[in-house]
């Protein structure tokens, strides 16, 4: 067969033009950040389907009270942890890395990433890591300790299974992969900007990836060291007792180290989304962002504060009250920079001439629904309330409002937004809108009622529940099934439009002003034909009539 | 660069003797060695024939300060932070800040 | 600074707006941030385990004995010397004296190997003589087993870094010997030096916290 494609998708060698096999090999060994970005996105899509299947199994089991779908309770116990691992480590983080690989080098006017080979290596660590992490499914030895893997439940006494060891090693590998990616992003953003692209001229998505990379760099290794200690404790029982009180260890230590990573990790999972939404809202409101400098500084503030709040996940473990109060205060402080961002987005839309294409729909719905997630976060940040709500479905509702209505919706906004740049073709707008409405509605159907379940005291991760919760659980289960099925509309749309969509011009949305909209769709192998140049924008808020001011529109 | 004074050194033909003590980094090396010796003596003064023990808080505080000074010397002179731009120095300081957060947050202040 | 600018110009990947260092150096610093945080996780865990009341932690000076501390102080000395000889490699390379740079590089590698050798000896001694309970259930630990556990994980993780550093340095040495690294490629040697000095820097902290305090 003959391979016809444009831009970076076109085969590089003559052989690859006629042989699909050679073409695929060319992709696998590529050092082009755009191709690696697409590979990340494909990988993330597969893992999202996998994690989605796991979540649907969980919800189907919980649709009715009593065991029905899964007869084996220990299999059920493994599912929430596996679902979380798949979604957090193998879907959200790689998906954002994928979009960023494609977009960030172009937005800063660079031909590629700083270390292209390292980029390829970082990607190829992921598939083996995924196989290791989920190896328990093939070996019938699934770890049942959830994605947090708290010892003593996860040590060799209570989880004496190989699947758990593989899971831990898989997670260490994912950490290595994402830190290598972060090293690459930082070197790229700091060192490869084109003329005129000063740090405070960077597009907000690039800024978001920079801050995220710092978070990954400083937080992920702490998880690695915790998992290393856990591995040693599992491998050499009787010698290493870091977390086992039987030998003078301290299970709380693991929780500290784990949450020192995993709390910044929620910002690793949402800040790139913030960046994407900033880009989308600017282009579809046809106005520059309101309060650019403040947007950047509030991202940095979120990142720094994000390192100071981890113990709010441990309010119920009996740590000292003074420490809990301190962490409660710092946690509530994070609502300030987040609020600044929400209001800046609203102010950007204010007075703009808004177009409601699918990316913008996702971005606006994100604003509303993420705010719900943020507010329930402030609720559980209060120590007395948290002691009531800890380990209930309220927490499940909170994290899903933040991660599904936050990260997933922004990822959709980003993918729809840059799809014309990825492929040179538009997606089908009607299918996109159908996908949006189904997603937005059924996220609420699935997760809103879980707030109520949590308030009533339904614990999370349990195989069964009190019969009085049955109706609410049924609603949630129906919602989750429809939500899952709706995502296939998106996948079908992407596959169909890749070949048959309307051809997109260079500036596909007409109002794009960052560098990726100045080059061909799809971009060529080295992005720019001429040395790019960035004409600095006035980023500060100036008077209404001046360029860059509140009322200045891009097409003025 | 660590040897920005050495690149302009006209003394091209020096041997392996004490000549290279003229370079700054050899003084740093000497300081590191002396500080290491002091570090070893502080918890065990009897090594050099002293018959008393330092109090425990003094030992802990002085050892940590000495370690930090040595760390700073290695980073400043050997890793050339002395000749770097502020941005690189900021990157180098970041892990110290974050590990301070971590250690303070994790330390068993009132018995865990 | 002249040679720095020359090596910057040679690095065609760098953009118009940059931090004024090579990509490689920036990447290495970013990597070191990550590595430092891994050690921070282990060291903070050590602090918590040790200073939890009732942890039954011995004073390291007494547990390792007089000679144990002296031997490790010697080891620290060797690592610091190896670090300074790495600075010499770069200095000689910048002067263009590649023969002497190669000699110093050999000295650096030798220092790393001696460090690993002494540490291997120390580990053997500790496992065989001091902590027989590790592999023989007939023995009882005299104090908290976490003393040995944290010791092994901290010095072991550091020792792994030294091993990687020795391999890295050997690669640089081979490059110097084959002439692939010329006197203009100072950034290659400088980046390897950054890693090697970082290993030294971490050892200063590990030595203080594990052996002395």
Give the key terms.
heterotrimer; B: 112 residues; mainly alpha; 59% helix; flat; disordered N terminus; C: 213 residues; Four Helix Bundle (Hemerythrin (Met), subunit A); 6 helices; 79% helix
Report the CATH C-level class of chain A: Mainly Alpha
Portion of residues within helices of chain B: 55-70%
Task: Please summarize the sheet with the most strands of chain A.
Answer: none
Name the helicity range of chain A: 55-70%
Taken from the alpha-carbon principal axes, the silhouette of chain A is globular
By oligomeric state, this entry counts as: heterotrimer
Structural class of chain B: mainly alpha
**What's the number of helices of chain A?**
17
State the low-pLDDT regions of chain A, or none.
548-556
Under CATH, the topology of chain A is which? Cytochrome C Oxidase, Chain A
Distance between the termini of chain A: 48 Å
Name given to the CATH architecture of chain A:
Up-down Bundle
Radius of gyration of chain B: 19 Å
Chain pair with largest interface? B-C, 55 and 58 residues
Membrane topology (chain B): Multi-pass membrane protein
Keywords (chain B): Cell membrane, Membrane, Transmembrane, Transmembrane helix
Organism (chain B): Lujinxingia vulgaris
Pfam family, one (chain B): COX4_pro
Summarize the model shown.
The complex is a heterotrimer of chains A (556), B (112) and C (213). With 556 residues, chain A is mainly alpha-helical. Chain A contains 17 helices and no strands.
Please give a structural write-up.
The complex is a heterotrimer of chains A (556), B (112) and C (213). Chain A is mainly alpha-helical. Chain A has helices at residues 14-18, 20-28, 33-62, 73-107, 116-133, 136-139, 162-191, 204-235, 251-285, 292-306, 321-333, 335-349, 358-381, 383-389, 393-423, 429-456, 470-500. Chain B is mainly α and 112 residues long. Chain B is 59% helix and 0% strand. Chain B contains 4 helices and no strands. Chain B has helices at residues 4-7, 24-41, 56-78, 86-106. In chain B, helix 2 (24-41) packs antiparallel against helix 3 (56-78). Chain B starts with a helix and ends in a 6-residue tail after the last helix. Chain C has 6 helices and no strands. Chain C has helices at residues 2-10, 23-51, 60-95, 98-130, 145-178, 186-212. The longest helix of chain C has 36 residues, at 60-95. The chains are: A mainly alpha (556), B mainly alpha (112), C mainly alpha (213). Chains B and C meet through helix 1, helix 2, helix 3 and helix 4 of B and helix 1, helix 2, helix 3 and helix 6 of C.
């Amino acid at each position: 067969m003959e391979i016809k494609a444009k831009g970076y998708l076109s085969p590089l060698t003559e052989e690859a033009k006629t042989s699909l096999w050679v073409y695929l090999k060319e992709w696998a060994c590529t050092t082009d950040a755009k191709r690696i970005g697409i590979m990340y996105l494909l990988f993330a899509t597969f893992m999202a389907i996998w994690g989605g299947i796991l979540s649907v199994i969980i919800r189907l089991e919980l649709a009715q009270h009593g065991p029905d779908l899964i007869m084996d309770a220990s299999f059920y116990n493994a599912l929430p942890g596996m679902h979380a691992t798949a979604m957090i480590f193998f879907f959200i983080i790689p998906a954002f890395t994928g979009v960023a690989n494609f977009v960030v080098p172009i937005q800063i006017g660079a031909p590629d990433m700083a270390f292209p080979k390292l980029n390829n290596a970082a990607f190829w660590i992921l598939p083996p890591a995924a196989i290791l992490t989920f190896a328990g499914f093939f070996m019938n030895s699934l770890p049942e300790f959830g994605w947090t893997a708290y010892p003593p439940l996860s040590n060799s006494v209570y989880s004496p299974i190989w699947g758990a060891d593989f899971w831990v090693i898989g997670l260490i590998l994912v950490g290595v992969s994402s830190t290598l990616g972060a090293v690459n992003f930082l070197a790229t953003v700091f060192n490869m900007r084109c003329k005129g692209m000063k740090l405070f001229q960077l597009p907000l998505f690039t800024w978001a990836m920079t801050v995220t990379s710092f978070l990954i760099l400083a937080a992920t290794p702490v998880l690695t060291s915790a998992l290393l200690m856990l591995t040693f404790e599992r491998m050499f029982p009787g010698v290493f007792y870091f977390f086992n009180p039987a030998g003078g260890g301290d299970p709380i230590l693991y929780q500290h180290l784990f949450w020192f990573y995993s709390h910044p990790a929620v910002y690793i999972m949402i800040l790139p989304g913030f960046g994407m939404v900033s880009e989308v809202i600017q282009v579809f409101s046809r106005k520059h962002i309101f309060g650019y400098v403040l947007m950047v500084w509030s991202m940095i503030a979120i990142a720094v504060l994000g390192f100071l709040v981890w113990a709010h996940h441990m309010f119920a473990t009996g740590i000292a009250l003074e420490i809990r109060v301190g962490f409660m205060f710092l946690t509530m402080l994070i609502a300030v920079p987040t609020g600044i961002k929400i209001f800046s987005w609203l102010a950007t839309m204010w007075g703009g001439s808004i177009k409601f294409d699918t990316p913008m729909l996702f971005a606006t719905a994100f604003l509303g629904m993420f705010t719900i997630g943020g507010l329930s976060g402030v609720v559980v940040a209060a120590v007395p309330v948290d002691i009531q709500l800890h380990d209930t479905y309220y927490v499940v509702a909170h994290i899903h409002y933040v991660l599904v209505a936050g990260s997933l919706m922004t990822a959709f906004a980003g993918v729809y937004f840059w799809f014309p740049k990825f492929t040179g073709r538009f997606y089908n707008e009607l299918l996109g809108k159908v996908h949006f409405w189904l997603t937005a509605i059924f996220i609420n159907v699935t997760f809103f009622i879980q707030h109520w379940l949590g308030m009533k005291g339904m614990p999370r991760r349990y195989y069964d529940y009190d019969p009085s919760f049955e109706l609410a659980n049924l609603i949630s289960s129906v919602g989750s099934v429809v939500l899952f099925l709706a995502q296939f509309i998106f996948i079908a749309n992407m596959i169909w439009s890749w070949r048959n969509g309307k051809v997109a011009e260079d500036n596909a949305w007409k109002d794009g002003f960052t560098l990726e909209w100045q080059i061909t769709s799809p971009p060529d192998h080295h992005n720019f034909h001429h040395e790019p140049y960035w004409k600095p924008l006035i980023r500060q808020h100036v008077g209404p009539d001046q360029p860059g001011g509140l009322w200045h529109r891009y097409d003025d | 660069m660590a040897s920005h004074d050495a690149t302009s050194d006209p003394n091209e033909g020096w041997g392996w003797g004490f000549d290279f003590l003229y370079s700054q980094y050899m003084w740093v090396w000497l300081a590191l060695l002396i500080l290491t010796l002091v570090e070893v003596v502080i918890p065990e003064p009897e090594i050099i024939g002293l018959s008393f023990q330092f109090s425990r808080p003094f030992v802990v505080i002085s050892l940590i300060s000495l370690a930090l000074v040595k760390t700073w010397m290695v980073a400043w002179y050997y890793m050339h932070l002395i000749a770097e731009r502020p941005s690189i120095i900021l990157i180098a300081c970041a892990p110290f800040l974050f590990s301070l957060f971590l250690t303070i947050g994790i330390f068993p202040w009132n018995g865990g | 600074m002249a040679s720095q600018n020359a090596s910057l110009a040679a690095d065609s990947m760098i953009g118009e707006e940059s931090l004024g260092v090579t990509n490689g150096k920036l990447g290495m610093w970013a990597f070191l941030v990550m590595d430092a945080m891994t050690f921070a996780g282990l060291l903070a865990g050590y602090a918590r385990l040790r200073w939890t009341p009732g942890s039954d932690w011995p004073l390291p000076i007494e547990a390792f004995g007089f000679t144990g501390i002296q031997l490790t102080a010697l080891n620290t000395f060797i690592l610091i010397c190896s670090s300074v000889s790495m600075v010499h490699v770069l200095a000689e390379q910048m002067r263009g004296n590649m023969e002497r740079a190669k000699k110093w590089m050999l000295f650096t590698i030798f220092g790393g190997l001696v460090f690993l050798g002494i540490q291997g000896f120390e580990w053997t001694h500790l496992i065989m003589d001091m902590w027989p309970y590790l592999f023989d259930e007939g023995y009882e630990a005299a104090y908290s087993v976490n003393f040995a556990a944290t010791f092994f994980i901290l010095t072991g993780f550091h020792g792994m870094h030294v091993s990687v550093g020795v391999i890295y340095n050997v690669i640089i040495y081979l490059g110097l010997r084959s002439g692939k690294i010329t006197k203009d490629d100072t950034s290659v040697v400088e980046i390897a030096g950054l890693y090697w000095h970082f290993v030294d820097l971490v050892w200063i902290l590990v030595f203080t916290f594990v052996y002395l305090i």
